[in-house]
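Entry for the shared binder. Reason: the reviewer on the internal report wants the predicted structure included alongside the sequence.
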Amino acid sequence: MSRWWAEPLRIGLGAARVDCVRQGLGRGAPLGLWPRRRVLARGSAGFAPRPPEPAWRGALDALDQALDGALDGTAARGEAAHVRLSNRWVRYAVLPWNAAVSGSAELEALARLRFEQRHGSAVAQWTVRCGDGGWGRPLLACAIDTALLDGLRERLDARGIALASLQPLLMACFNDWRRRLAPDAALAIVEGDRLTLAAFEQAGFVEVSSRRCGADLQATVEQELATLPLAARPGAIEVALIGDDAPGPALREGEGDPALRLLGRRELALCGA
């Protein structure tokens, strides 16, 4: 069967729940248009941290149950999974443009150094990758626990499922809504009780922060903005809600300075789809 007609698995590895969605091509699309994918089956499983284990260990255990629901007894061998990672499992850093640094190895070494300055020796156990910001633009670096990545591959390999892509939620959201983002705005991603705030300008990302979100989203955003080294205050905060439980805090659109503007709500598993 060709990949055009494949039914991909989309997995959202969240902070408290794992969602797995199997998609197929929709029918009846007008001639000449790309057919839209529709949800054929889905499975979900919640989990809670089990100290002293790493918090993500529960997510990997919940993945098996979520896959059972989405596959519903069908064979998965040979299928491909596209995984979206909650911001809970990812660390971010923005690297200023440096014309003297080139090649992925040099960029990742520079990013690792930046993470070490912030997080110390724990970085030795992390996998670090850099996005392509383009010539003259800052780079967004991401880091996740290598054990999480290895464990994810092992769980999928055991079912004969290939890990086709792995993308942090921040990048998936940015790609989904980038055409609607005002040039002087910041992007706030709310999933459960976590806020990830990304400030950017025409040249690219400026700074990214992530923290637990209080009961008042506007107040939490104000507090976080005060900690970021921004040359100019954002004109607005564009808010993306991820999952049914976001936002835990109340969202009051249009209030405050800068004002909050709602972009929409998405499932973690379907972000970037």
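Summary line for the report: The chain is about 25% helix and 35% strand.
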